[in-house]
Amino acid sequence: MKILLKRLSLKNFKGIRKYEIYFSDGINEVIGENGTGKTSLFDAFLWLLFGKDSQGKKDFGIKTLDEDGNEIHRIEHNVTAVVEIEGREKTLSRTLREKWQTEKGKTEEVYKGNETVYEIDNVPLKMSEYNVRIAEWVDEEIFKLVTNPVSFVGLKTQQQREILMKMADIDDDISVAKKYGKEDIISIIESGKSVSDRAKELAKIKSKLKKEIELLPPRIDEVMQSISDSGRDIEDVESDISESKKCLYDLEKKIEIIKNGGGNIELENEIKKKETELEQARMEHNIKVKEIRSENDRMKSERIRNIEELNSKIASGERNIKELKNDISFAKERQNSLREEYKKVRSDVFPKFSDTVCPCCGRAWEKDMLESKQNEYEEKRKAHNEARAKRLAEINDKGIKLSETIKECEEKISGYSTKNELYKNQLEEFKNSPLKNIFVPVFDDKVYSDEISGLKEQLESNIVDTSKEEEKIKKIKNEIMEFETERGDIIAAQKAKERLSELEDDMKQKAQAIADIEREEEIIMDFTKIKIDILDKAVNDRFGIVKFKLYDYQINGGFTECCEPMINGVPYSDLNGAGKVNAGLDIINALQIFYDVKVPVFIDNKETVNSPLKLDCQTIYLKVVGEEKNEDVKVIEITKGVA
After folding, report:
1. Residues 568-580: pLDDT tens digits?
2. How far is CA 7 from CA 4, 23, 92, 599, in A?
3. Does residue 52 lie within any of the structural domains?
4. Distance set, CA 557 to CA 157, 525, 527, 551, 569 (Å)
5. How many domains does the chain have?
6. 507 vs 457, residue with greater confidence
7. 423: how many CB neighbours lie within 10 A of its CB?
């Protein structure tokens, strides 16, 4: 696709009031002082195509400003260009204009925002239609890359690499592996993963294993310190526990026989029986107390509820009385209004007929009209009097109904007042009457206590001395506890040894896994170095003076991906202004060949480059005014505030 910019017209665009410029097919040089609008030409061309400036911004200052920096309203901002696309001329136009509207009921117009008008060959188009037509000729992202020397180097590293990978068009990994005899790499790829993804996966697994190994030595040391050895087998300890428990059983049996021989069993049983009876009596008492308290609470709640109901009834009655009094007041006001209306209607008497003049207008009657007018008058007077009588009857009926309403309201007020008096008397009775509580009895356990105390005194006089046997029992119980503790220590030591063996095995397995990973990483690194050499040549053969550094080698032999354009070994970031421009032009030249497009290239600040790289496309230099001349270059001068 070959595109040439033939003519560019600006109207009220970024301070340029009106300007038209023609370009040749080869090199064009637009010269002018700083601030005259050279860069605005590039902005205008990009805005015309894609609605953005040379910085990729959609929202930038298109509108023309006055001397105070304020927008000048009610003017159109237009860019029109004649472009040659594959030998055919097309006229493109984009116009930004303000929308003003007179609101309903007002005379002044109100600003309602902006609208953009699109045209191709003087045919109006919708925005979507316009964008589709432009996209058919050139992709926006590709256009930015092949027309602006700083676009490619402004991309993120990964975006640059993706473009270069497409340009390199090298063989796939399996083909490279077969060519260089790297069978292990083929098995990795056939597993469904790319070599780079497998390398990342191995690095992640190795990092995790190393962290896990770092945690193992402290845990092993902790387990080793927890191991304590009593020197005895667990079978010996179990035998000692069994023997001690047998001795304990024999002593407890002996004490039981001694006590039974003393005849105290019946007394002990009697004491237990009396204690059970005491507990049963106390339980029954507590149940009865709970029932009494529940009944007291119920009576208290009922009293409160009755008082609240009476207060609610009294309040409701007073509200009803108030509403009825308001109704009476309204009815009386209405009666007064009806009385006035009655007087007014009653005083409305139809005028008497005069046989000399008209009673309505005062003009003298003509003789031939007197009789007919007198008949007409009688009909009107009759109709008037009938309507007057009907209205007086209606007013009278309304007055009677209002009187009945007042009487009905007064009767209701009397009823509510009577009820409220009754409720108030009942309320006073509730408030003045004491609350009836059922007495809560106190439990008396004296009878039971006296009997139990007597039985215990009788038992104490018959007690047999078993203190020696009980002392032996205590000693044997302590021995059993010591043996069980020793058994627990032996079991814990056995588990600790098993855990120690597991940790040591785990450490060996992880170390072996790391070794296996590092062997696979070495295979991948050897293969990647081969690919780097292939990629480096495939990419850099496409460029002239620019060579790309695609990998950074590290001290440990590894490498990281990068994308640094260089000229004669000097990185782009360290080049001077001229070097950066020529690097950008060399990249544009390669990209135009790769994408098979020839589009206008804008070079800003050309004055910083003495010998810019020649391109096989239309070139437009934007340059501050200088002395040098070149017959092969079309020079166009632009001045500030062009009209």
Report:
1. 999 999 999 889 9
2. 9, 6, 10, 14
3. yes
4. 22, 9, 14, 12, 21
5. 2
6. 507
7. 19
